[in-house]
Design brief:
single chain; alpha/beta; two-stranded antiparallel ribbon; 11 helices; 9 strands; 36% helix; 18% strand
Length: 266
């Protein structure tokens, strides 16, 4: 694809041409500024051989940008109303496969070829489940999320933001960078601030058969934040933790201690 019009021109033109109104229930806020794409590219440089998963293709601005830089893009979108506009934006891009599905239920491992990179403007309501489901398959991430979720990804133990997604992301990945994103890069403008966060799988980390169990233990521990580990795990129908940590709350444990806990409970 050639340089083409800017993201703002494409987004606004497609919205007018196809009479598209963003669906608030789906958390739709379309990109209208190409500058944020270049910021994403600096946070997580892409390689020509990369296979990328994009969640929330929308009107195709990010999709087209990715298609000019990588081997293949799996573009996931749940809103069929956008199909004519997305098709128009991607005309001539032969390396994009549009997947009409709910990304929160999609297993990236089932895509062929498997994606090694996730680049996405994630709606608030699916951001956390999408990231967690992608962890065993995807090796590099650059996600645009609401600032509250960005805070959670690499939150420290003992903080309000620290939770199950913090533990799982930090067990599997290391952060590469973070940048604030202006509300003005979206149409319509959201009522919250956003951020780009880039991270990658830790060298040598393989998320195999034990990962599902670890994830279950972590979610069980944080399922009732105000309760002790012993009570939270009991409510999740999981084995009792060792006595020395039974009286602690989940937010007090380091990610590495959760990894050990999962092994202790098998």
């Amino acid at each position: 694809m050639g340089p083409g019009p800017t993201g703002s021109q494409v987004t606004l033109a497609r919205m007018r041409e196809f009479g598209i109104r963003p669906d608030r229930d789906l958390g739709q806020h379309f990109l209208v500024d190409d500058n944020v794409l270049e910021v994403a590219g600096r946070l997580l440089p892409l390689e020509p051989a990369d296979v990328v998963l994009e969640v929330g293709a929308g009107l195709g601005v990010l999709t087209a940008w990715l298609a000019r830089r990588v081997a293949l893009v799996h573009a996931v979108e749940v809103d069929r109303r956008l199909e004519p506009a997305l098709t128009a934006t991607l005309a001539g891009a032969g390396n994009v496969r549009v997947v009409w599905a709910d990304a929160a239920r999609l297993d990236p491992a089932e895509l062929d070829p498997r994606p090694g990179v996730l680049v996405a403007n994630l709606p608030y309501n699916v951001a956390t489940p999408v990231i967690i489901r992608a962890l065993p398959t995807v090796e590099r991430f650059c996600v645009m999320v609401q600032r509250e979720i960005a805070d959670r990804l690499f939150a420290s133990p003992g903080t309000k933001a620290y939770g199950a997604v913090s533990v799982l992301v930090q067990l599997a990945c290391e952060r590469l960078g973070r940048r604030p994103v202006s509300r003005k890069v979206f149409a319509p403008e959201p009522n919250v601030d956003s951020a780009l966060v880039a991270f990658r799988r830790r060298p040598g980390i393989e998320l195999g058969a034990d990962w599902e169990w670890t994830s279950r233990v972590v979610h069980g521990a944080f399922g009732h934040r105000r309760k002790t580990l012993a009570n939270a795990l009991a409510l999740a129908e999981l084995p009792a933790p060792p006595a020395e940590i039974a009286g602690l709350r989940a937010e007090q444990l380091l990610p590495e201690r959760f990894a050990l806990l999962a092994r202790e409970l098998t």
